[in-house]
Design a protein that fits this description.
CATH architecture of the largest domain: Beta Barrel
Strand content: 25-35%
Order of helices and strands: HHEEEHEEEEHEEEEEH
Helix content: 10-25%
Number of domains: 2
Strand order of the largest sheet: 1-2-3-6-5-4
Oligomer: single chain
Shape: globular
CATH topology of the largest domain: Thrombin, subunit H
Distance between the termini: 49 Å
């Protein structure tokens, strides 16, 4: 392809894989929102949110609210999954593309703190137990970078893309190679800032990425929370400043 001014895949990969980069610290703090006693096995992505929130409060999508499910006995947990290599060993550092995560630290829900009623800011707060079912401690929080969003800034979206009937089948197979529902990292850039509360990015996402952490590659902190994508156009995320405001008010 003729040069178009955009970075090559090699340059993007080199930026993501910088040794000892701050991005690696954020990866373990992103988890999948699993359900029990429900027809759905899982409903999106959540992550441990840092200051100004307390350590034990992850942010995640509205759809995981127990009250919204309308079922008695519903259990909800954040599963902070291990990432394994092809031999079943824990992979360090970072992610192994295409290898489904296994095991994990299930952290049962304690209670739902808040579900944002304004649909422009699709955010919910959950307080989870301080330890997992086997006594494991949760990973550290991801700090909110409330002033870090800037157009053309490099980001990584960390979450759990699932097979999406709305996406082009050929593109989906080419990019994800048939491996879904496991932790993935997609690099990209911020392409727009809408007011003070919404940002747009061009990282590749699918259904299941809702609630993903949008991480600034330079700082390793969260600049937004992804909640919606439109194929071929852009992705929409809640600015970290809006997440911080919600956490201060309701956390």
């Amino acid at each position: 392809m003729p040069p178009d001014g955009r970075p090559s895949s090699a340059s993007v990969t080199a930026r993501v894989e910088r040794p000892g980069g701050p991005l690696e610290k954020a990866i373990p703090s992103v988890g999948r929102i699993d359900l029990r006693n429900h027809d759905l096995k899982w409903v999106g992505t959540g992550w441990m949110v840092g200051p100004p929130a307390r350590r034990d409060e992850p942010s995640c999508r509205r759809e995981v609210r127990p009250a919204d499910a309308g079922r008695s006995g519903l259990g909800l947990g954040v599963r902070l999954q291990a990432v394994l290599d092809g031999q079943g060993r824990t992979a360090q550092p970072g992610l192994v593309p295409g290898v489904p995560a296994a095991g994990g630290v299930p952290l049962p829900r304690h209670r739902s703190l808040w579900s944002e009623p304004d649909h422009r800011y699709d955010v919910a707060l959950l307080r989870i137990d301080a330890t997992g079912e086997d006594g494991e401690s949760p990973p550290p929080p991801i700090a909110l970078h409330t002033t870090g969003a800037r157009v053309s800034g490099w980001i990584a979206v960390i979450g759990y893309p699932g097979h999406d009937s709305r996406a082009d089948p050929a593109d989906q197979q080419r990019i994800f190679d048939g491996a879904y529902n496991c932790k993935r990292l997609a690099a990209g850039q911020l392409i727009g800032i809408e007011g003070q509360d919404v940002v747009h990015h061009d990282a590749t996402t699918l259904g299941g990425n809702s609630g993903s952490a949008v991480i600034d590659l330079d700082s390793g902190n969260a600049v937004a929370l992804h909640f919606r994508g439109e194929a071929g156009r852009s992705n929409v995320a809640v600015h970290a400043a809006a997440v911080a405001r919600i956490v201060r008010a309701h956390g």
